[in-house]
Each structure stands twice: as structure tokens, then as C-alpha cells.
Amino acid sequence: MRGLVGKRKLLRIFISLEDKFKGKPLWEYILELVKKEGLAGATVFKAAAGIGAHSELKTFSVWRLSQDLPVVIEIIDREEKVRELLKVLDEVIEEGLVVLEDVEVITYRHRGK
């Protein structure tokens, strides 16, 4: 799929693993939204530790039942598609950080069905 190669936008979203929207994990809701809106794809990274919006250190602990760890979601696509997604994300992200940067996609390949 050579159509994604070239100058694109990288949307990076920093949220918490425990964030929810409509009772569903927020990261999962965002992935479903990306698929529904037909963006090229998204990747979710669960961090081992981080400092959140309230300067609170969040780390993994085997002693805690609940793991409120940082999550980063990366989405790359054409600027117009990313900007449309941002309009929806503004309604669903209550707390977190959203950044947008220029990237150049060199190669984008996938296996055919």
C-alpha cells in the first residue's frame, strides 16, 4: 500500500491504562474508532512507568491488584484524516496528552488477503 508513503502526521496519545469511555478501556475505544474511521492503523504501547498529569509516579507492582500504568497510542495517516479523528478524540479524552508531529513514511507494506 504505497499510498501512505510520503509526508504524513503522527498522532501520539498519552493516557492511563485505567481510563475508560462508555465503560470500555479508552485505548480499546480509540482503536475501534481508528478502524471505523478507516485510518491506516494504530499501535498501543503499555509503559512500565511514567509520571502523569498530576506529577504522580505510576509504576508496575506485583502487590497491587489495579495497575494504573501509562499507555501511548500512535497513529500515522494523512493530515486530513488525523485532524478529523482529533475532533472526536477531543470529546472522549478527559485527561492525558495529545501531540501531533510531522513524519515521513518510507515504507508501508502489508500482506494481501
UniProtKB/TrEMBL annotation:
Top-level taxon of origin: Bacteria
SUPFAM superfamilies: GlnB-like (SSF54913)
Similarity comment text for this entry: Belongs to the UPF0166 family.
Protein name from the UniProt record: Uncharacterized protein
Organism: Thermovibrio guaymasensis
Lineage start: Bacteria, Pseudomonadati, Aquificota, Aquificia, Desulfurobacteriales
